[in-house]
Write a structure and sequence with these properties.
This protein is an alpha+beta fold. It is about 30% helix and about 30% strand. Strand 1 and strand 2 (about 30-35) form a beta hairpin.
């Protein structure tokens, strides 16, 4: 694992606001983060990524805790490869292969489902949408990190979801699109697509389709 690759992964989990137990998976130049319950999947696509770094990380699995605990100045000689199964015991040697199979399969299945699902756009710019901006800024984001509220979309009342402060990592200059994606007959995914100047961040959360 090069310093550049480790820095890349550190920046990704920072953008994701990943918990220590989240698993990071790199697939076809896109970085994914998935929680233990597999109920929240995040992805980030960089506009001008370092291809050498992406190629070196492709089809690898990482644990956010191990990445966060590796500081640049203390990288040597403790960890040579963050996810090298043969050499690195720090990232749970006995679990890495299973993580790769389990989460890798989940991510690839998820990608296929997302590409073939019906996507309904609720808002092209959620933060500046008159139906939501006051609610987000004054009601939800004015409270603490753990505050949540069940929302019923204005244009698509079929979908209901709980929005938590801190769920969408964004800046005022970002554009946020809100999409709904049917997963099956009883659930759907909410996709908060954050359009940044350097990347596109997607936050997918699974929701029950409430009557």
């Amino acid at each position: 694992m090069t310093f550049e690759a480790l820095a890349f992964l550190k920046n990704a989990i920072k953008a994701f606001k990943s918990k220590l137990t989240d698993v990071i998976f790199v697939y076809d130049g896109v970085v994914y983060s998935i929680n233990e319950e597999k109920s929240c999947i995040k992805s980030i696509r960089y506009n001008n990524p370092d291809r050498n770094v992406l190629n070196s990380l492709n089809y690898t699995v990482h644990i956010a805790e191990a990445i966060k605990k590796n500081e640049m100045e203390t990288l040597q000689p403790y960890v040579q490869n963050v996810v090298n199964v043969e050499e690195n015991g720090y990232t749970y040697y006995h679990k890495v292969r299973q993580f790769l199979l389990d989460y890798g399969e989940t991510i690839q299945s998820f990608i296929a489902n997302m590409n073939n699902s019906n996507k309904v756009c609720e808002s092209n710019d959620l933060i500046h949408d008159a139906n939501y901006c006051a609610l987000l800024e004054d009601d939800i984001f004015a409270h603490g990190t753990g505050y949540g509220k069940i929302l019923t979309p204005v244009r698509n009342p079929k979908y209901r979801f709980t929005l938590y402060k801190g769920l969408i990592p964004y800046l005022k200059s970002d554009r946020i699109e809100l999409w709904f994606i049917d997963a099956d007959n009883v659930s759907s995914f909410t996709d908060f697509k954050v359009i940044k100047s350097t990347s596109v961040l997607d936050v997918y959360t699974r929701n029950l389709l409430l009557p």
